[in-house]
Amino acid sequence: MKRPDPRAGLPAIWADGFGRASIRSVQALTVAAFAWAVLWALTRVPLVVIPATIAVILSAAIAPAVRWLASRGLPRALAVAVSFLAILAVFGGVVTGVVFLIRSQWTDLRMKAVAGIDQLHDFLNNGPFPVSDQQLNAARESVQRFFTSAAFGTEALNGVRTVGDILVATVLMAVTLFFLLKDGAMIRGFLIGFLPANHRAKAHLAADRSAVVLGGYVRGTALVAGTNGLIVTVALLVLGVPLALPLGVFVFIGGFIPIVGSTAAGTVAVAVALISNGPVTAVIVLAVIVGVNQLEHHFLQPVLMGKVLSIHGLAILLALAAGTLLAGVIGALLAVPITAVGWTIFKTLTGREPDPATADHGC
User: Which has the higher per-residue pLDDT, 128 or 267?
Assistant: First the structure.
């Protein structure tokens, strides 16, 4: 059967190659404008979008535990509650332990900090690039002027407002996570129900694969970050650096931001080692941080998450840059999982990924 000519019925000006390219360009610009409008609308309500996104990501990671508990006979709501309590117990225990460790070692750290600042002062005066006391005093006075200025007061008020926003977002995220774990299948079916009937099966498949990707990403990232934090903690304990466990926890948290998170968190450990133990220990800690980053990039990431994400490192870097520009640290945290889900949905809808033998039905 002869296929109809798509140029039939078009005016001559639109029927040639240039005319068809113009039509495609207008269509592409329309889609781009719609996408920009959606992004603009989402960035206007970050206190809703960001907690909801984090809740979706966490639900994909926690859903297997909830299903396991439900398969043992627990009601769905009780299984979700048990999972919540377990997470809160772990998180609360870590925070409490870190706070007590900081309080118990604060006096020792302060005494070492005084000696370390004196050593740093001597090094700056007599090092390869000498800095005079007059220059140091000028820098200190400029810092003091900033902390006593109106600008610092404004920043402090903004900081208080930010803390309030974080508390509200945390509560909203917890509530959203609870309902996603409890009624995730119903919510997903309701949303997919708006699609045409012939597209719903593929949409369910894309949702299942996205849940697998998100769950694997969170669990893989937690393993990578935990390994980084453990190595740094052991190194700091061996070197006698104060606050070794809190700094290791900080490295663990930083590990959830790919590529740059562990490095940024590691600089804090290097700074504490420099102030408390001197430049030699700081250089050793820096070498440990560099070695941990190399282990993460060349072994842990490919082994634990390479098959889950199937995204090139350049794409991850570009996604991080875009996420940081759009939403700062939160954007950097969410950029990679959102990109991974987008790529998974695209492959599913275009038929580029074969049907899995088994699907992890998440939230």
Answer: 267
**Of 93 and 289, which is predicted with more confidence?**
289
Residue type, 172: L
Q: Of 50, 34, 30, whose CA–CA distance to 42 is shortest?
A: 50
Query: What is the C-alpha separation between 136 and 47, in angstroms, rounded?
Result: 42
Q: 268, exposed or middle or buried, with CB in 10 Å at 0-12, 13-18, 19+?
A: middle
pLDDT band at 363 (very low <50, low <70, confident <90, very high): very low
Encoded tokens for 72:
């043992």
Sign of the Cα pseudo-torsion (246, 316, 169, 51, in order): negative
Whether residue 29 has pLDDT greater than 90: yes
Q: How far is CA 231 from CA 156, 245, 252, 274, 278, in A?
A: 35, 11, 10, 19, 21
Q: Could you count the other beta carbons within 10 Å of the beta carbon of residue 331?
A: 20
Neighbours of 359 (CB within 10 A): 14
**Helical segments of the chain, H only:** 12-15, 17-44, 46-71, 76-126, 133-147, 150-192, 197-239, 244-254, 261-277, 279-295, 301-309, 313-349
Distance from chain centroid for Cα 12: 52
Instruction: Give CA torsion, residues 16, 20, 23, 25, to 10 deg.
Output: -120
SS3 call for 52: helix
Structure tokens at 269: 């450990």
Q: Which residues contact 219 (CB under 8 A, 6 or more apart)?
A: 61
pLDDT single digits (tens) 222-246: 888 888 889 999 999 998 888 888 8
The answer to whether residues 84 and 175 touch, using CB atoms and an 8 Å cutoff, is no
Which residue pairs from 338-341 have beta carbons closer than 8 angstroms and sit at least 24 positions apart in sequence? 338/53, 339/311, 339/315, 340/213, 340/214, 340/217, 340/308, 340/309, 340/311, 341/210, 341/213, 341/214
Please check the confidence at residue 152 and state whether its pLDDT lies above 80: no
- Which amino acid belongs to residue 144? Q
